[in-house]
Design a protein that fits this description.
By secondary structure, this protein is an alpha/beta fold. Helix content is about 40%, strand content about 10%. α1 crosses α7. The termini are close together.
Length: about 220
């Protein structure tokens, strides 16, 4: 069985750091077996937002142009909402001033740098500062625009924001799914191993479908 190379592009939820023993992509790899993961996660970054010397997704993707990538997933957006001075925009925007515009630039670069390589979106997970009942919840708006963009372009999209048991705005859930040695009561932002296990429950069948399509082409 061929081993497929998966480029996981994202932020600190994808990045290997002290907050979890295993990220979702490693758990998926262990479940499916025939994967090699290139971890392209960098904390503090987003579709538009950069963190110190760490570029946003649409600039960072160029680093991997010579890698033998079989498929790409993109998970992010929370740092744009929390840290950036841009705006969400609409599906179809192409401006570097909007998060959706930067997403569009990213996709165009992927299609140029990796012709024929499939790619997919994964929404970010629930976040403490973005409660679903809040009518001004910008995370809901961003994920909705991402879903519309994906629908318009027939891009696979996995929503792990909604119908999720994580719910970090609930104190017990924050501690259970978002705690780490530095934040024993939970930071409401970064899932721990238990949280990544929950993420992987949905991401595994999603990635499996991508891999199956790849194998059908061999």
């Amino acid at each position: 069985m061929k081993t497929h190379v998966w480029l996981a592009l994202g932020d600190s939820i994808t990045e290997k750091n002290q907050r979890t023993e295993k990220n979702y992509h490693l758990i998926v790899k262990e479940k499916l077996g025939n994967l090699e993961v290139i971890n392209a996660g960098e904390g503090g970054t987003g579709f538009r937002h950069h963190h110190k010397t760490r570029p946003p997704f649409y600039k960072r993707i160029e680093r991997y142009k010579d890698y033998p990538i079989d498929f790409i997933t993109i998970l992010g957006g929370i740092n744009d909402l929390m840290l950036d001075d841009g705006y969400i925009g609409k599906a179809g925007d192409s401006s570097e001033d909007s998060y959706m515009g930067c997403l569009d630039i990213l996709i165009k670069k992927i299609e140029t740098l990796f012709p024929g390589v499939p790619y997919a979106f994964i929404s970010t997970v629930p976040q403490e500062g973005f409660i679903p009942t809040d009518p001004n919840n910008k995370l809901e708006t961003l994920v909705s625009e991402m879903a519309q963009y994906a629908k318009d372009r027939n891009i696979p999209f996995l929503d792990i924001l909604h119908d999720s048991p994580l719910k970090p705005w609930e104190k017990d859930n924050n501690k259970k799914y978002y705690s780490n040695p530095e934040m024993p009561d939970g930071d409401g932002l970064h899932p721990n191993l238990a949280g990544h296990m929950i993420m992987a429950e949905k991401i595994t069948p999603f990635v499996k479908k991508i891999v199956e399509k790849l194998e059908n082409k061999i």
